[in-house]
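Duplicate of #3305? Posting structure anyway:
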């Protein structure tokens, strides 16, 4: 049983708009010189306090958009672990969900069991399951119960739009959220034997007729506010806790 307290927590987020309400709630400011000048990532901490770090993926200067997706998330997670040496990594952000599984716009899930990739289709024995990932996440069922948060498998890929092939994989694992970063962060954490879980707020419902893009843009601010509400509860819950306190 791990009874060591969680003294340093790093929250990895892709989009500034997703992160800003949480950053403002805790009065975090940009921490200088955390990453190489060649990397776009931005770290936010309280002044003279590295117990809570929020790392945002930064901007693509060519197109003036957030660096989203698995590629940025992989490098972001690796750079954050090297620079910050956290005791726990959390992937937080927005995701698509399923009304048929009880989701509404703004439902916030905690990850359960594993993260998978839904768009890595390699029909060769061994490579197929490796591509999907089956990446373990920290068991947090006690925290979920105490905070009244639903649990589920989180599925990641590189596209926002709906795809029948992607949905087939998501259905296979009964995933509750389709997003673009968590499994990438989970892979890096698994390599480093670093505890990891995800917190995802639903912006769009994939089993409703509206396009994912329209729903995402329409609901991003609302879902980001809901994400902050629950993420604040999660961080406050984790204070003075050990890993063994999070599960039953």
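Output from current build:
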């Amino acid at each position: 049983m791990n009874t060591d307290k969680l003294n340093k927590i790093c929250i990895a987020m892709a989009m500034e708009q997703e992160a800003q309400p949480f950053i403002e709630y805790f009065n975090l400011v940009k921490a200088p010189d955390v990453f190489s000048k060649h990397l776009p990532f931005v770290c936010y901490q309280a002044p003279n306090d590295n117990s809570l770090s929020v790392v945002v993926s930064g901007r693509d200067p060519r197109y003036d958009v957030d660096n989203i997706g698995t590629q940025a998330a992989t490098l972001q997670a690796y750079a954050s672990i090297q620079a910050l040496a956290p005791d726990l990594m959390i992937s937080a952000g927005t995701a698509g969900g399923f009304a048929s599984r009880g989701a509404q716009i703004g439902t916030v899930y905690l990850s359960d069991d594993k993260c998978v990739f839904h768009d890595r289709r390699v029909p060769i024995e061994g490579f197929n399951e490796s591509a999907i990932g089956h990446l373990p996440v920290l068991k947090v069922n006690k925290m979920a119960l105490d905070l009244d948060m639903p649990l589920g498998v989180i599925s990641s890929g590189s596209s926002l739009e709906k795809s029948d092939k992607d949905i087939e994989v998501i259905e296979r694992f009964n995933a509750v959220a389709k997003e673009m970063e968590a499994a990438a962060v989970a892979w890096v954490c698994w390599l480093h034997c670093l505890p990891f879980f995800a917190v995802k707020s639903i912006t769009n419902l994939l089993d409703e007729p509206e396009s994912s893009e329209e729903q995402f843009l329409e609901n991003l601010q609302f879902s980001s506010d809901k994400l902050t509400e629950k993420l604040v509860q999660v961080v406050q819950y984790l204070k003075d806790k050990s890993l063994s306190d999070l599960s039953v």
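Confirmed duplicate; merging threads. The first strand starts at residue 9 and ends at 13. The radius of gyration is 17 Å.
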